[in-house]
Design a protein that fits this description.
The complex is a heterodimer of chains A (about 260) and B (about 170). By secondary structure, chain A is an alpha+beta fold. Chain A contains 5 helices and 12 strands. Helix content of chain A is about 30%, strand content about 30%. In chain A, the strands form 2 sheets. Chain A has a 6-stranded antiparallel beta barrel with strand order 1-2-5-4-3-12. In chain A, strands 6-7-8-11-10-9 form a 6-stranded antiparallel beta barrel. The longest helix of chain A has 25 residues, at about 5-25. In chain A, about 40% of the residues are buried. Chain B is mainly alpha-helical. The longest helix of chain B is centred in the middle third of the chain and has 27 residues, at about 95-120.
Amino acid sequence: MDWELYERYWASLILTGLLVISLLLLAFRNRRSVEHLRSVLYVLSSPTRFLAGAASVEPATSSNLSEEMSTDKSGRFQLLQSENARLHQLMDIKERRWPRSMAARVIERDPKRWFQEMVIDKGSDEGIGVDAPVIALVNGREGLVGRVSEVQPHQSKVMLISDSLSEVAAVSEGASGEDGVVEGSNSHNIYLKFLPRGSQVKIGDAIVTSGLGNLFPQGITIGTVVDLEPDERQLFLQAQLRPVVNPSQLGVVLVLI
Amino acid sequence: MKRFFFYLASIWLFLWLQTLNSRWTGPSGISPDLAFLGVLYFGFFRGPLAGEWMGFAMGLFLDAAAMGLLGLHAALYAVAGYAAGVLRRPLDEEQVWTQGLFAFLVSAVYLFFYGIFDHYFSGSEHMFSARFAFQALMNGFLAPFYFWLIDQWFRLWDFEQRRSNVI
């Protein structure tokens, strides 16, 4: 048998074995042994993250990348000034409203899971736990980013409110004060669902967290209503929201612990 | 033994490059998958066995590092590495355009299956997004240069045979 056929024969056999192992890992992903394996692999790959962290002084965001394209000194100065002001606001909010919160930097985003998650540089060793709410400052106002869905010692994964699995108890800030559940759709759009058919919610109303369910604190802005329509079953109204936070422009977030 | 260390070092190198890449270009939403291109290189230039092993190992590390579904990237990368190895013969692997087109097509197929698996296992509502297409295009565009870089890395190790049938 020539080498190529021999190699292909073995490669097919081995590939079958590798696929079986992969499927078993996926099927039993919540078992302790799989979690343990994941932790071991995570530790083994940590030097690459350390080196990458050392090599990247500051992660690029779409906003500061484009801004840095203008290389003149005044542009840079203004950029630093606005960044400084933003951080000051964040620290101010932290001290006034959330003294136990922790500022974290967004360090990774996977384009394949763009509307679902982001990775921040703080983890369980810094006191962050699963389900901790994550907020950001937008024009001096707190906006909801999502919640921590997974923690490792020094980094955490944040489930964004635009993830289709995300559900947030919310209420309209308008005169109606009606409540519902904000759900993501893995796209730019998020929806306030389960509003009564005769709802008084109007386009332009701000939607904030209601505090029900004890997962998110009350009064954090989620978005504003841009459209109202009956839901698929025609039983309720649903409001399409424009999220107040654009995760693409986030460099630093606050994790409420 | 030297070959073993070469593969180990290559996995770490690609992981490092991919982590850097995620941090620098990830937030823009348009970013290549350098780890995947590394797997394609091994399949394309070193055969299906090298491609699938490299893909499986790299996928496992990526799944663990990115806190994703352990096994998802491992399975898809292993198949991609195998496919790259099996398909290399009918293609002229030295041609730049062949490398680019091949990387684009395999990336597109990989992202298609990634969308389906991710939808099934993590319950995502939408299977695909425009960013998938951007990533496939970026992979195709970067592949020839990236393959050349990895080839230089391979030469550093001073193996007797440079290409093909070297596992």
